[in-house]
Design brief:
Helix content is about 40%, strand content about 20%. It is of the alpha/beta class. Helix 4 packs across helix 7. The protein is globular, with a radius of gyration of 23 Å. The model has no long low-confidence stretch (mean pLDDT about 80).
Length: about 240
């Protein structure tokens, strides 16, 4: 009994250290989220009622990346490098129905601009006018999130199950060439984030675009994992 009690500490030491490290990461993450929420950062989003004439209006939009901080140094110390400005006072009007391509080398701020337009990037300021309404805005990140569960839920995300008809979901999957996945049935439950390849997840995200038919869609490298021969045909089918 005494020997078992003495061995308990070395037996659970690894588990306790793992829990401690995970807890510290969660605490730092929570503090960072609270700091962003209190700072009130991000663009001012003005969502207007759906109208055929109104598109997107961007006024004096500035986007930057935060100054890097060393997590092992005192927070009072100044950052090693100043914040990097990606966009400075951008003003732009995009007509309803227009298609705009953002092109440029990696790191110039294409993804940050799209996130700022959707209100998901706190290191920005300015005014953006967007359409409002059910499924009015669609943001497709480069890394596609696919929830586990039924296939119909993975495709219709973030709309809850049962809101969209199965026929519409099946049609969207066929449009993007996911007939093989559809053959498993919409009732098939699986961890789709692990089961699907990068190319299949990219096609599934485009199926959401077809399904939701948003008034404003921001696509971050939607064809990065699609083979060259299929890109033009696939994107044309989704947009038309």
């Amino acid at each position: 009994l005494v020997q078992g009690s003495l061995l308990w500490i070395p037996d659970v030491y690894g588990v306790v250290v793992s829990w401690l490290a995970s807890t510290e990461r969660l605490v730092r993450f929570s503090d960072a989220l609270q700091g962003h929420a209190e700072s009130g950062g991000g663009v001012s989003l003005d969502k207007h009622a759906p109208s055929p004439e109104l598109g997107i209006q961007i006024k004096k939009l500035s986007v930057w990346t935060p100054a890097p901080h060393d997590p092992f140094c005192d927070d009072a110390r100044p950052p090693a490098r100043p914040p990097a400005t990606l966009l400075d006072s951008l003003s732009l009007n995009i007509a309803a129905g227009a298609r705009v391509l953002l092109a440029g080398p990696s790191g110039v701020g294409k993804s940050s601009l799209l996130r700022a337009l959707c209100g998901a990037w706190p290191f920005a300021e300015g005014h953006v006018q967007l359409p409002i309404g059910e499924s009015a805005i669609f943001f497709m990140p480069a890394e596609v999130f696919v929830p586990s569960g039924e296939l119909r839920e993975a495709v219709s995300y973030p709309v809850p199950k049962g809101v969209i008809a199965d026929k519409a979901i099946e049609s969207a999957l066929r449009t993007v060439g996911l007939d093989i996945v559809l053959a498993q049935g919409l009732d098939r439950e699986m961890d789709w984030g692990l089961a699907l390849s990068c190319g299949q997840k990219a096609r599934l995200s485009l199926a959401r675009l077809v399904l939701h038919k948003p008034r404003f869609a921001a696509l971050d490298e939607p064809l990065a994992h699609i083979d060259d021969a299929s890109r033009v045909k696939l994107l044309g089918a989704c947009l038309n």
